[in-house]
Amino acid sequence: MKLQKFEFERKRGKYDSLIAVGGKVYDSSYDAHSIDIYDFCCESLKDLRLAHIKTWPDLYSSDVGYCETRTSFTDNSLYALALNCRMLQIIDLSFTGCSRDWPSEIGFTQEGFLVLIQSCPIRVLVLNNANFFDDEGMKALASSPHLETLELILCHAVTDAGMRFIAHSPCLSNLALRMCHNVTDVGVAELGRVHKLESLVIEYCGEISLEAAQGVAKSVHYSKDCSDALMNTIGLGAY
Question: Do the beta carbons of residue 95 and residue 55 sit within 8 Å?
Fold first, then answer.
């Protein structure tokens, strides 16, 4: 049977085998120069989930603005998926331990990511702690002809401008914003002007009020608190 769904979720215990280099501890899959363990070809793949891709300590050089990437999933990985997995419909990318600032220690760029999005009929997209993704990315998503469900978690670079772009996405019907603190009532109002969302989830977004969320979609779930489930989702739940 041809592979249609692939899930990878890193779970590391405190006694797992690690490699120490120069006093720093990491595992070999974080080496961006190693053989890319995430590259694969599958024409029938529809559902891809890469969750809790953890990172090892920052290596910055302030002189050149350089950031050592900490994952081996690179733009080349995305190009390979775009070329070889043309039926891909569901993408879930979740990172833990990443700084919210640029340059990103994630091993790929927004440019590479958008090549994948624009090459495949993506219906469902989940981005968790994706510090490479910003309002320009939202602008590109807005022209995606297949996108129905979008979930953004800890995407700090997405603002009200991004909401204004995504409000015009032709097929978007389900939107979830979790811990996106740079989206405000103004951005939610942009969504409300279109009146086509089936469901809207707002969880622990400090600048969005319940009053602003009401009426934006047929179904609205709003919480000003951070749930245990959300803490687990971002990799900060109790072990």
Answer: yes
Query: DSSP alpha helices (H): ranges in 93-178?
Result: 110-119, 135-141, 160-166
Average pLDDT (213-225) is: 96
Residues 6+ apart with CB under 8 A from 103: 65, 66, 67
Q: What is the DSSP letter of 188?
A: H
Record: fold of 136-239: 3.80.10
Please check whether residue 131 is in contact with residue 101, taking contact to mean a CB–CB distance below 8 angstroms: yes
Query: If pLDDT is split at 50, 70 and 90, which confidence band does 62 have?
Result: very low
Give the strand pairing for 90-96 and 47-54: parallel
Q: What is the pLDDT confidence band of residue 20, given thresholds at 50, 70 and 90?
A: very low
Please say whether the beta carbons of 201 and 178 come within 8 A.
yes
- Determine the residue type at 239: Y
Q: Phi and psi at residue 45, in whole multiples of 5°?
A: -65, 130
> Is beta strand 66-67 parallel, antiparallel or unpaired with respect to 60-61?
antiparallel
The ranges assigned to domains in the chain are 1-10+21-133, 136-239
- Please report the beta strands in the chain, taking only residues with DSSP state E, as ranges in sequence order: 5-9, 19-21, 24-26, 47-54, 60-61, 66-67, 90-96, 124-128, 149-153, 174-178, 197-203, 217-223
Alpha-carbon gap, residue 37 to 214, rounded angstroms: 44
By three-state DSSP, how is residue 18 classified? coil
